[in-house]
Amino acid sequence: MATETTPSSAPAKVKRVAIVLATGSYQREAPTTVLRLVEKLLQRGVDVNVWAFEEAVTLTNKDQIDHNEPGSLQKVLGEKHPNIGRFIDQMIRAGLHGAKLDWVSCILCVQERGVEKHQMGGSIVGTLGDLWKFVKAADRVICIPTYR
Fold it and tell me: What are the helix (H) ranges across the chain?
């Protein structure tokens, strides 16, 4: 539920959510779950700011390659393997119901992984200062860590 209780017991609408994401694609299902959450928040008119670090910076790698699922899994997973970056790009550009998505990837993490020059249009390479701005402006903060 995207509401909170104020001292007067009147529900206050959440207008902005910050998500801190450290898990990349193909490691866990967390990025997929986060993207589903982001999509629903945007549909409800909530602005979402995602700050990606560690392996999560690979999610916005524009050079991801489409490929087919192995034949033995196509009946279960479908023919095409989903390109998670394309889904992020669509949500950044969509502006669903007036809400917007800002996606910032940590500059140190993109440099360490060699994907700084491979970030898709619409995503931004930023610093911890951007994270601070997102957290400071948010009504809610969700942190998805890396599980090791």
Answer: 30-43, 74-77, 84-94, 107-112, 128-137
